[in-house]
Amino acid sequence: MDDDVTFAVLGTGGIGRRTLDVARHKDGLTPVAACDRNGVAVDHSGLDVDELLDATEGNIASGPEADGDTPATPESDYASDGGAAAVEGGSVDDGTATATDGVKQAGEDAGIVASAQGEPTETPIDDVIAESDGIDAVLLALPNLEHDFIPRVAERFAGAGYEGVLVDVLKRSRVIGMLDDRTDALEESGITFVCGAGATPGFLTGAAALAAQSFVEVEDVEIWWGVGLKSGYEDNRGTVREDIAHLDGYDIETAREMSEEAIEELIAEHGGQLEFHDMEHADDVLLERAGICDAEDVSVGGVLDVRSDEKPTTTTVRVTGTTFDGERGTNTFELDDATSMEANVNGPALGYLKAAVLRNRAGDYGVYGPADVMPSF
């Protein structure tokens, strides 16, 4: 069986750009399409990644307006992470949405359309779907600043009869249920969907599932992460915005409506570090659906530092349980502080993508979590 994989990236902000970059270090993986809010690039023989990354430098997950004074609205559903929020009309009911200016560059030549490979479009996701017969897998490097945005995108691929793989790096627990509700449509289309396939959920969810194998009963799973973002902050404003929704007194709606100025003020109030406890993170439902433990026994928190590249705390997974012979213990998994977000998010995402392609080619369709699939790179 041919193990070569062609893939597309929806969104060329921080996550999307890093995916294209990291993919150059993975054998047999060829990016053939990418899109952002302004344009699309497609070359089934393989994109020129160097040129594309140069052209999209500065695609940022900014607020809805360049001046930072106008809040986003549910109707605008703008694409943080420089993503393609994407399509005609902007109506939530019809499964489409429009983006507002989310790049440093201004005007019609911003983002992918600045590339020699890019073409301007008002329907970037639809344009990728139209080319999907030649695409084995699609990474959704999109924000989820409406809870059902990524599930709606998946539904559109299924509605178009796409046969292949969809992978996302979403965070919210409730989104998993929305994807599960679409399982029949995904299976009928021939789609294998791996949800929450980044670091957490994703890599760390899988680590927790492995650590749990020592026990016959798992008491609790504690995931504590640390991320330093100084050098990548401009390309990761959407990620920061989504994280803010987990702070006390905030939710996804208030975070979405914040101006860039308000976000900067909040970060300044916290000295550049945001600390999170008891986040609504999909690790809980993903571990429960894999039979590891109850969702209520999983806790996720961490520290985000947007003024330093160094991690403010070591990323750690602790699984506590009881063995078959009655011993109580804790298995601990740590990520080295030297490993970057690119390594720990995009590396696993591509590993899950390849594993999902192998499953898809074997006829396994539906929705999977990172505890169900082992990365293949």
From TrEMBL:
One of its GO terms (molecular function) is transaminase activity. Keywords: Aminotransferase, Biotin biosynthesis, NAD, NADP, Nucleotide-binding, Transferase. The modification Allysine is found at K171. NAD(+) binds at G11, T12, G13, G14, I15, G238, T239. Residues 58-101 are annotated as: Disordered. It catalyses: (8S)-8-amino-7-oxononanoate + L-lysyl-[protein] + CO2 = (7R,8S)-8-amino-7-(carboxyamino)nonanoate + (S)-2-amino-6-oxohexanoyl-[protein] + 2 H(+); (8S)-8-amino-7-oxononanoate + L-lysyl-[protein] + NADPH + H(+) = N(6)-[(2S,3R)-2-amino-8-carboxyoctan-3-yl]-L-lysyl-[protein] + NADP(+) + H2O; N(6)-[(2S,3R)-2-amino-8-carboxyoctan-3-yl]-L-lysyl-[protein] + CO2 + NAD(+) + H2O = (7R,8S)-8-amino-7-(carboxyamino)nonanoate + (S)-2-amino-6-oxohexanoyl-[protein] + NADH + 3 H(+); N(6)-[(2S,3R)-2-amino-8-carboxyoctan-3-yl]-L-lysyl-[protein] + CO2 + NADP(+) + H2O = (7R,8S)-8-amino-7-(carboxyamino)nonanoate + (S)-2-amino-6-oxohexanoyl-[protein] + NADPH + 3 H(+). Its EC number is 2.6.1.121. Pathway: Cofactor biosynthesis; biotin biosynthesis. SUPFAM superfamilies: NAD(P)-binding Rossmann-fold domains (SSF51735). It comes from the Archaea. It is an enzyme of class 2 (transferase). The keyword tRNA-binding does not apply. GO terms for biological process: biotin biosynthetic process. The active site is at K171 (nucleophile), E242 (proton acceptor), H246 (proton donor and proton acceptor). InterPro entries: BioU-like, NAD(P)-bd_dom_sf. Belongs to the BioU family. In cannonical biotin synthesis a pimeloyl-conjugate is transformed into biotin by the subsequent action of BioF, BioA, BioD and BioB. This enzyme replaces BioA and performs the first half-reaction of BioD. Monomer. A 'suicide' enzyme that participates in biotin synthesis. Catalyzes the formation of (S)-8-amino-7-oxononanoate (DAN-carbamic acid) from (7R,8S)-8-amino-7-(carboxyamino)nonanoate (DAN), a function equivalent to the cannonical BioA reaction and the first half-reaction of BioD. The cellular requirement for biotin is thought be low enough that this single turnover enzyme supplies a sufficient amount of the cofactor. HAMAP family: BioU. This is (S)-8-amino-7-oxononanoate synthase BioU. It comes from Halosimplex carlsbadense 2-9-1. The gene is bioU.
